[in-house]
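Our preliminary data section would be incomplete without showing what the modeling component actually yields. Below, a chain of 376 amino acids is followed by its predicted structure, encoded as tokens that our downstream tools consume directly.
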Amino acid sequence: MVLLSGPNVSGNEWKYIKDCLDTGWVSSVGAYVDKFETESAKFTGSKYAVATSSGTTALHIALILAGVNNNDIVITQNITFVATLNSIRYTGAEAILIDAEIEGWQMDLDLLELFLNANTEQRNGECFHIASGKRIPVIMPVHVLGNMCDMERLCAIANLHNITLIEDSTEALGSYYNGKHAGTFGAIGTLSYNGNKIITTGGGGMILTDNEQYAHRAKHLTTQAKSDPFEYFHNETGYNYRLTNIAAAMGVAQMEQLPVFLERKKEIINFYKSELENTGDIEFQKVLPQVNPNWWMPTIFTSQQKELLKILNEQKLQSRPFWVPMNRLPMYKDFMYVTKNDVSGILYDNCLSIPCSTYISDEELNRVAKTIKSIF
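Predicted structure:
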């Protein structure tokens, strides 16, 4: 089986994890947690980085830091992995779902701007949805597949309407807009280290911020809000969301290899584009000139999606469809969906992700391309 996006464990993972086992520092404190946070902040250009148990928990804490409460509304997008919406619901808030744009598959900023101009008002320096009377404290864009929208424009829209920007950059480690790393444009950004991400800790996440107060509170909340170094005194509702030292040790080893992984991802997308761009009706995700994406998950758009998925997986070339749009999930179907042409549905019906592990061989890449070409 050629995996879709498997973990590449080829560096110092064994060495660093063994060090945790040898020293007994295996839980949620230890030198590797600190080092992983330091290296992540350094790589992304963020002042602070706080490790968490998953990308989802990073999103949840980010929303809490931004003051999202029950009865609030968070604006996000309709094409995303379900964790984005789940994290919003953990706070008790609702979501307004913005459709994607057809070329880059990111949040449609035209729709966002039209919606905010027509349906919101300012009260005491905060944004409110006129029809429901609910506060809109946060916009949460998702950098889908490591690509990015026009971040300058998005930041300007958020600032104009007094809405905090939290970036779901869980897929975008190593992606840049005008040389600035994903997750560092808003008040808070998040990363994920799930097994299929560009680097992995098996599971895990990271909160990025330049706000010292946010960073300290994030660390406090993720460690059960324990406020006394000796007594078990907790001064607010906390969460068991910290990353273990063992997982962080793996993360440190993976960070050492990240530049090589990013280079390989670019080689993979360049190969697929050279082989498939003129094949049938295949199209690739468009990228703005200002964006340098990590190409985490090469994905193609074609009317032959279903047939390709069947053939590729029968040939043990693991491939997957896009996420089911959030407005089609039973628990989120009643959320407001801002759209004109249901681009999310079009993407779901036509997109598929193809094998792209950083260790994939050139021979395996050729097998994937040949199999795709065979149906056209």
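The chain has two domains: 13-255, 257-324+341-373. The two ends are 23 Å apart (CA to CA). Preliminary results of this kind motivate Aim 1 of the renewal.
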